[in-house]
Amino acid sequence: MKIVIQGAGAVGSHLAKMLRAEGNEITVIDDDSQRLQNLALNADVLTIEGSPTNISVLKDADTGRADLFIAVYPSAMQDINIVGALLAKHLGAAKVLARINDEEYLKAENKQLFKDMGIELMFYPEKIAADEIVDLLRHAAFTETMDFAHGRLQIGLFKLDENSPLLDNKLIEFTGSMTKEDSEKFRIIAISRGEDTIIPKADTVFQYGDLLFTISKKEGIELLIKYFGKKNIAVEKVMIMGGSRIASMLARSLVKLGIGVKIIEIKLDHCRKLVENLPEDVIVVNGDGRDSSFLYEEGIEGYDAFVALTGEDETNILSCVVAKKLGIPRTIAEVENFEYSRLAEEMGVDSVINKKLITAGRIFKFTLSGKARFVKYMSGTSAQIIEYTVTPGSRITKKPLKDLGFPSGAIIGGVIRKKEAMIAVGDTIIEPHDRVAIFTLPDTIKEVDRFFK
Q1: Within 13 A of 444's CA, how many CA atoms are on the CB side?
Q2: 221 and 155 housed in the same domain
Q3: Which position among 63, 119, 298, 346 has the lowest Cβ density within 10 Å, counted as fewest Cβ atoms?
Q4: Are residues 219 and 246 in the same domain?
Q5: How many domains does the chain have?
Q6: How many angstroms separate the CA atoms of 309 and 263, rounded?
Q7: What's the chain look like in SS3?
Q8: Torsion over CA: 124, 328, 385, 416 (sign)
Q9: How far is it, in rounded angstroms, from Cα 185 to Cα 227?
Q10: CATH number at residue 87
Q11: What is the rounded distance in angstroms from the CA atom of residue 219 to the CA atom of residue 153?
Q12: Residue where one domain finishes, among candidates 202, 227, 252
């Protein structure tokens, strides 16, 4: 696939590397020579220096032949991305996507307006991240979570600690201890262990520190939490460190849910802006959230969750570690450096949010067959969760799952058939128009995709 990316900032560079690794032909446009040089040192992509909205530059990038054009210019001015995407569409690009930074553009009537003009997807990474944090706080027993079909199926990520009843048990021993009725409500679909991601077999032994990927029906969530020895924390008060755009959007969403919010922001002038723009129910305090004595003075022990969103990975991780030591049951850190994600988990941070990773999933589905509805990268692994809608006559419908020769690096976890949710097993036969949730490792994605064509 030929892909042109407008913008070599953090998001654009990550997308370029990821999509190039999948064998796509990548061209990146930017007017900052240093950003392009940094990208060229780390990825085998073609770079073109010039204004991202200059028609001649777009033509030099052969935008008219692009299967996909992604406008992610790293600027506060979203107009650059919108103009670039519209120009790319009129030059002949098959699909165009644009990053924005205004929630108003995401209203249904406005999204339709831009879709009519040819922009297939507008995405706001900070808004996506804020929504993801809300989901994590609503499902506080999970390290990460993802809903299918309005929650009828849910993929969850659990970390095994020293008190877990699963430790040192084999998968077959764990499943054998359940009733048939319980086993039909959830399933363990993968394990992330160190640098490896494992599709578990019957004799796989659970170890301390394992990250378990599970899929469950809505009615199986509480059962799953019980089997794993976890507690679903009721989050009623949240302390946020850092007054970023993500923090502001998160605060608004939490207040609407009736959750108390306090924001700690180190810059006084920014505190004043937060007070002016946020609901009165949000408490804004000027201070250094890295100072444990300050946090203690602000009553941190009375909060159910601590979310660090300063824009500095190290600060976010360390402040979450401090919050955990002060007794906060739930901590979430924004971490943009992938190498720090595993470190954060090892240091006790409950969940990690990465804007680049979240955005990549939304975009990656456009490189797959038209029946891929949704893609998400999960923390702690390079694997992806993909939701497909099954086409009549596709290969996936021909035999029971156990007889299909489905790739060993992937597993179908669950199925939505009309309004019914099912946990997939070997005897399951996939039917046309089913929606299926798949966990897949990177090197098997294209092979999995062929089953749905």
Answers
A1: 21
A2: yes
A3: 346
A4: no
A5: 4
A6: 10
A7: CEEEEECCCHHHHHHHHHHHHCCCEEEEEECCHHHHHHHHHHCCCEEEECCCCCHHHHHHCCHHHCCEEEECCCCCCCHHHHHHHHHHHHHCCCEEEEECCCHHHHCHHHHHHHHHCCCCEEECHHHHHHHHHHHHHHCCCCCEEEEECCCCEEEEEEECCCCCCCCCCEHHHHHHCCCHHHHCCEEEEEEEECCEEECCCCCCECCCCCEEEEEEEHHHHHHHHHHCCCCCCCCCEEEEECCCHHHHHHHHHHHHCCCEEEEEECCHHHHHHHHHHCCCCCEEEECCCCCHHHHHHCCHHHCCEEEECCCCHHHHHHHHHHHHHCCCCEEEEECCCHHHHHHHHHCCCCEEECHHHHHHHHHHHHHCCCCEEEEEECCCCCCEEEEEECCCCCHHHCCCHHHCCCCCCEEEEEEEECCEEEECCCCCCCCCCCEEEEEECHHHHHHHHHCCC
A8: negative
A9: 12
A10: 3.40.50.720
A11: 9
A12: 227
**74, 100, 123 - which closes a domain:** 123
Does residue 362 sit within a domain?
no
pLDDT, mean of each 10-residue run, the chain (453 residues) = 93 88 91 94 94 94 96 80 95 94 85 89 90 85 73 83 87 89 88 84 90 87 83 89 95 96 96 95 93 91 95 93 91 90 85 84 72 66 82 93 91 90 92 91 86 88
Q: Which pLDDT value is given to residue 235? A: 92
- Give whole-number Cα distances, 179 to 34, 122, 168, 219, in Å: 60, 46, 21, 15
pLDDT at 259: 96
Report the CATH number at residue 190: 3.30.70.1450
Structural domain boundaries enclosing 39: 2-123
Q: What is the pLDDT of residue 148?
A: 76
Question: ∠ at Cα 306 (303, 311), nearest 5°?
Answer: 150
State residue 369's pLDDT score: 58
What whole-number distance in Å separates Cα of residue 296 and Cα of residue 284?
A: 16
